[in-house]
Amino acid sequence: MSLNPDQVERIARLARIELSPAEAAQTRDRLNAILGLIEQLQAVDTTGIAPMAHAVANGHAAQRLREDVVTESDRRATYQAIAPEIEAGLYLVPKVIE
Amino acid sequence: MQWEIVIGLETHAQLKTQSKIFSGASTAFGAAPNVQACAVDLALPGVLPVLNKAAVECAIRFGLAVDAQIAPRSVFARKNYFYPDLPKGYQISQFELPVVIGGQLTIQVGQGDKIYEKIVHLTRAHLEEDAGKSLHEDFHGKSGIDLNRAGTPLLEIVTEPDMCSSTEAVAYAKELHARVQWIGICDGNMQEGSFRCDANVSVRRPGGPLGTRREIKNLNSFRFMQQAIDYEVKWQIETLEDGGRIEQATVLFDPDTGETRAMRSKEDAQDYRYFPDPDLLPLAISSDWIARVKAALPELPGEMKQRFETDYLLSPYDAAMLTATRDAAKYFEDCVTFTGLPAVPGPVERGESLPLQGGAMPGVAKTCANWVMGELAARLNKDGKDIAAAPVLPTQIAQIVRRIVDNTISNKIARDIFDALWNGDGDDVDAIIEAKGLKQITDTGAIEAIIDEVLAANQKSVEEFRAGKEKAFNALVGQAMKATKGKANPQQVNDLLRKKLS
Amino acid sequence: MSAAPTLIQASLRELGAALAAKRVSSVELAQLFLDRIERFNPVLNAFITVDPDKTLAMARAADVRLAAGSKDCGPLTGIPLAHKDIFCTEGWLTTCGSKMLSNFVSPYDAHVVDRLNAAGMVTLGKCNMDEFAMGSSNETSFYGPVKNPWDTGRVPGGSSGGSAAAIAARLAPAATGTDTGGSIRQPAALCGLTGLKPTYGVVSRYGMIAFASSLDQGGPMAKSADDCALLLNAMAGFDSRDSTSLERPVEDYTRDLGKPSQDLRGLRIGLPKEFFGAGMADDVRAAVDAALAEYRRLGATTVEVSLPNSGLSVPAYYVLAPAEASSNLSRFDGVRYGHRAAEYVDLADMYAKSRAEGFGAEVKRRILIGAYVLSHGYYDAYYLQAQKIRRLIANDFTEAFRHCDIIAGPTAPGVAFAFGAKSDDPVQMYLSDIYTISTNLAGLPGMSIPCGFGAGNMPVGLQLIGNYFDEARMLNVAHRYQQATDWHLRMPGGL
Questions:
Q1: Which of B87, B89, B275 has the CB atom closest to C374's CB atom?
Q2: Model confidence at C75, in pLDDT bands (50, 70, 90)?
Q3: Does the annotation count C438 as an active-site position?
Q4: What domains sit in chain C, N to C, each tagged with a CATH number?
Q5: Segment B426-430 long-range contacts (CB within 8 Å, at least 24 positions apart)
Q6: Does residue C22 carry a catalytic annotation?
Q7: Which domains does chain A have, with CATH numbers?
Q8: pLDDT computed for residue B347 by the predictor
Q9: Does B280 reach chain C within 8 Å, measured CB to CB?
Q10: What global pTM score does this model have?
Q11: What is the ipTM, given to two decimal places?
């Protein structure tokens, strides 16, 4: 299984990462090498095996529930001190078009 | 040239919790931008989600209220996409294993004698987090992002494509809207965005395969929902009849033009790359927990309506009106209870008029119902108030009804007392009756004396009546009531006047 | 004998004793290491951020605590510590080795940092690392590679390369690290140190910048198992802000160390035959064999076990970790913090350029692979399949532990390699983690301890893998070896 340039472009778009044509070509080669590595998984028969999403110790545990209490206070000034662009307490980005 | 319409609705109901679904920030509406966006909501590097128990309870309550199955184990999944109001670049939602499965709502569609009932089946309901808001007011060509709303708990409720008209869709949306408020999981405030609907609409030939559907997003009023679906259906049919094809698309409704239009940013079919969120463990809901929630669940509107019909002898229409909201139902029942009287006439009284009023007196329950649906509703409407904010209390209406039943006051006087209470002109019914001297005049002799005076002063009407004009009789009754400042028992005035003129 | 060499070689207990006896103050200790950092860091590049003012302020506060008496003090009070730059430290630049966070001054402390601060440790600085923890050589850092103090032409290992180099060069007595596929153990092995990855869920991940959430664990790196045990006591424990943090009774991880009843007689050490095959270099094999001989001398027995699916661990990992990472790194979009491109034409362009500029090549590769294996049509064949293989791998360990008490083998297939030796071929680089990755997939605890030297006089590490929550025993097994040998006390020359 190997990726063609269109597929690489599509994935890069999905991941919102701009790749220059040169980068795209090199990335494609590297990705195909990695795909070669992970191809081995296909051959394994995993019929009847349950997928493991969490480390085993957690496998028996269930999600802990938090009491519905407000515990956070206004720290806007602190958080926005590290923001790229703020106005009137809002994060500014290029206009979002719907 | 027949077409069938196929509609499914997805509704996002904001759950009435204090804090967010995965963080401890407040969910209160209306705060200054970003003061309720904590580190977790802002998706700072290294932060993690922890699940709010109350949000889960809301989901359980909902599942029980629509006869659905509550999943003993459900899983949170990441829905990956980029948008500035989605700080993590993914939304925590549920995909393959939602918390609520199946369920249904029975809706009443249409009006008057064209009303019919229909069952709308639910596919599922699942928990997820809300995104923030983009403000498009011009910040020199930029959008401003407010993340206060990011992380507010949502229940996404999905129907089967069971509805076949905009009317049915709206009826379902209204019923769902009432239901989520009834069980106290959502405040239903559509202007504030607490209840948002997306409609999936397609058309097909009868017996033919399902057509391609388009999704109308973010319908936040029932009126817009009706208009949007109607337009979309018309557009799809016209397109197909012109030989065109329907492309799957997400569309927005423009209330100004009344049209639906495909969204630009969703051209690329989105690949959300769902996978179970590794930061959250599977949600376990025990049958014990479900039982506890069930025990605490309020009586549902369907059951209550039935009970009102059976126990209070109310008509289906009245019962439906009074069970439209929990507040109204409680108000009504409190009125009945506080009268301290039997809610319905016993076998002996039924069919017999209650003393001195003439005609079959409606039972106490029916009387209270009339007051709640009549005077109270009208005044609430006029003043733009919710029943919860009514200046007149069930105890007071109950007292009014007691005084009608024991003949202290007439219906007309009762309305005057109601007015006084509403305007804050006194708060005790008996005190008002005393202070304003509103006791009904029931003394036969006194009434006869007044009638004699009225007849003497209104010879013209007497002659007209004797000439056959029934209207003149009413005029004389009116005069008599006026002379007593409305306090004479109207039935007695009627009876005695007839006697004197015969 | 002057005090300085002794202090930089001292164990954490010895430092604690010196502080308690007032033979040295926390400020003096901090200054000692800050001076060494100033001297040696320009070459080694182990630290990304050093802030002497902040460090000395913490040291002064520690001295106040020490003066006030033992009630408020513990074994770690006043002792300096370096943090891998993946832990959010309030008021300090926290870069995660990336340009993307080159301007990110964290507004909060990670849970682990909170706990170590509460224990009275003094932050020496933020250590260099592979970018976003993705790497096995510390060559992918935006801040330049870290040099192995044993041979500056070689890598220190990764991703906790800075932490490892700092300790090896005695620029810090201890450091925090994180381990997703071996990132504590492998650099510990390549730098002659002791490092421990706990059972998944024992150390809170809150404030530890996420790479692969179901695999990441924070842990201690130091010169000995005893040191690591003391640090683990401070680092471990339930945190309500991390849903994967486990609620368990508090443990004292030092409890078995040195206990006569806890000697190694009768200990069954399992040797996975798949770990002793062709992939291991001869010099590594020799050192590991010698270590196992020592264990037998101490009374343990070795038994062959099998982890039949371990050969699939690297491919499975390179599906699961990039998948989770591709999602975890989506928040880096230039909107609320971090790098934002200077020029862009619209929103989509802002995202694409900010992320293209902010991420290095390896990170981009992993994000793209991750997005691919999760994408429509490929999820079942790749992601779901890898999750199933993960379970097979975990089951292998469960079976193996029926026949032994602890598992041992090499930590890495070879000693530290030269710069650039593997960076052209990502798959070659990935195979550096061949012995460590399965531990993360299963969620088991693992350690690396120095067990000798190989080619070029470079350190070799012995890996220990314990059963779930068996850290105390694992530490004791390491400790006994360190009482009988002195590999862990060796230090590179010229420093």
A1: B275
A2: very high
A3: no
A4: 4-265 (3.90.1300.10)
A5: B427/B396, B428/B399, B429/B396, B429/B399, B429/B400, B429/B403, B430/B399, B430/B403
A6: no
A7: 1-44 (1.10.20.60)
A8: 65
A9: yes
A10: 0.91
A11: 0.96
